[in-house]
Amino acid sequence: MTGRRTTAAAWVVAVAAALALFVSEDAYALRLGALLAMYIALASGWNIIGGMAGYPSFATAAFFGLGAYAGALVQLKGVPMPLAWLFGALVPGTLALVIGWVVLRLRGHYFAIASLAVAIVLRELATNWTGLTGGGMGLNLPVLQSSVIAQARLFYAAQAMLAAVGVGISSLVAYSRLGFALFCVRQNETAAGMLGLDARRVKAAAFALSAAIAGAAGAIHASSIFYIDPGDVFDVLLAVKPILMAMLGGAGTVGGPVVGAAVFFLLEQTVWATFLSVHSGVLGILVVALALFLPQGLLRWMYRGKVA
Amino acid sequence: MNALLEVQGLSVRFGGLSALDDICMTAEQGEILGLIGPNGAGKTTFINAVSGAVKARGTVRFGGRSIAGLRPYQIARLGIARTYQIVQPFPEMSALDNVAAGALFSGATPSLAQARKRAEAVLERVGLVREMRRAADELTLAQRKRLEVAKGLASSPRMLLLDEVNAGLDGTEIDDALRLIRSIAAEGVVVLLVEHLMRVVSGLCHRVIVLHHGRMIANGEPARVLAEESVIEAYLGRRYAKRSALAAKA
Asked: Is A303 helix (H, G, I), strand (E, B) or coil?
């Protein structure tokens, strides 16, 4: 199929571009690269629960923020950065297993609202548990003693690696039993249960994977900006953007969130920078346009009929 | 011979409505059992109760083990497969993957590759192998009904609950379906089918259970049961039943 060759070529170009950026001396470009990589990770992570299983989670902000705080707090205790990031993945992943067991009983809009509530609760917790989190004053992280360009390169590499891990996990899931089960859950959960599938287990697994990726992204983000506060890391936009990206590219596919994140990133950088005061209006229009004209996403629109 | 399915005092209530009331029955290996009754008699509720889709009171034993209160997926893994009156495919997935899901989730095959291999064999058996690459929602109604049976069969069930799989099929399609059901039962599988077509009931079933307003009003050989006054009354009303009883005496 020509589609397969195009896909392979696109992956090669993406990886080559990512490597080329790594040796760049432009700190600004590296920061943008880190942001794009983070978007890819978040969109791919959301896609596991939201796209493959069809559970529209708004909990990405919750897991991102929790990961940021978890990573920051252990980093302040002297844990080295990579381990802190791992911890930042572990804590939200575990929380997702626990709350997933409860909220994944809900379907559709009900699940969406419940998942949104998780972010609100965590944000309130972070704001009011002053003794641990510094409350609304935020939390300062250790500042690195290295050059600006070295820091930019480090965090770009970290986010890019996370993006690669996120896409890797998502493709492993897509072509495994778990992915097959998630596709069945999305299409007809009742029928899947009647055939012997313990839907709650596979949904909880998908939710946890998705949360772990978002958490790691949050932890790396926290390390890279040296300061976090509840309003920033539990921002509801962090929940909405990955959904938009995944849908823009094609929810449920492996490549969709990557393409969607890239297109969204370009839109954000060009259009939004020029219309600074109305950018949330543009976001709204984009949501409506997506739902109306591209419900299946760019990839499915380009390769009609070819899924995954 | 020990009964594979033993149901005792099975009752289901929806609020104030008694959908099933104190049903007692058994089914033995290889038996083809018809479940008939007018609309709203509780036939589908019975299937839902046995497969765990609705909560019921009473005892249900399958292969000697109590399955009351288990969740649908647990019951499915014990070897009870069912179809729905309104077909429940995975609409965007291929016919092959629909059936593979039955093989995989039930535990009949350990891997997805093996599940697909088994699915192909099952599709061959039900006559859908040429359609295996097509998405389920592109199939005709008759094909989708057969797909439901195939999904159930792929799980290597010990009991198959068929909810009106023949409704809406034409003559030759029904003949094919009957042949298939007989061959399934010949392997020792209990087949319990909800049916409206008397031709299917009398030609296929070893035994017939009649439900009316949630109660079991008859249980026995098709020819005898279908002639019972209470059964005719349930279907056609009291006056018709009296008249036909008089006609039979004369």
From this structure: coil
Q: Do A191 and B72 touch (CB under 8 A)?
A: no
Tell me which residue in A187, A195, A307 faces B105 most closely, judged by beta carbons: A195
- Cβ-contact A158, A217 below 8 angstroms: no
Question: CB contact, 8 Å: A49 with chain B?
Answer: no
**Is the minimum CB–CB distance between A191 and chain B shorter than 8 Å?**
yes
The reply to whether residue A196 touches residue B92, judged by beta carbons under 8 angstroms, is no
- In the predicted model, is pLDDT for residue A2 greater than 60? no
Q: Which residues contact B224 (CB under 8 A, 6 or more apart)?
A: none
Phi, psi of B20 (to 5 degrees): -140, 135
The pTM assigned to this predicted structure is 0.89
Handedness of CA B35, B36, B42, B48 (dihedral sign): positive
Domains of chain A: 2-302 (1.10.3470)
Quote the ipTM score. Answer: 0.87
Contact check, Cβ <8 Å, B88/A191: yes
Task: Please check whether residue A304 touches B, CB under 8 A.
Answer: no
Sign of CA dihedral A203, A204, A210, A214: positive
Which residues of chain A neighbour B73 with C-beta distances below 8 Å? 193-199
Percent helix, strand and coil across chain A, each rounded to 5?
Answer: 80, 0, 20
Please compute the mean of the pLDDT values over residues B185-214 and round it to a whole number: 90
Cβ neighbours of residue B114 closer than 8 Å, sequence gap 6 or more: B103
Which pLDDT score is estimated for B232? 81
Query: What 3-state class would DSSP assign to A26?
Result: coil
HSE-CB for A26 with a 13 A CA cutoff: 8
Residue A71: phi, psi to the nearest 5? -65, -45
Distance CA A275, CA A290 (A): 20
Q: Which residues pair with B211 in a beta bridge?
A: B216
- CATH hierarchy code of domain B29-55+70-79+158-250: 3.40.50.300
Q: Is the pLDDT of residue B160 over 50?
A: yes
Alpha-carbon distances of A48 from A69, A181, A191, B106, rounded to whole Å: 23, 12, 20, 23
Any B CB within 8 A of A295 CB: no
Compute the residue count for chain B. Answer: 250
CB neighbour list of residue A78: distance below 8 Å, 6 or more residues apart: none
Task: Look up residue B94 and give its DSSP letter.
Answer: B
Residues of chain A with Cβ-Cβ distance to B84 below 8 Å are: 191
* Tokens (6 digits) for B105: 């989730």
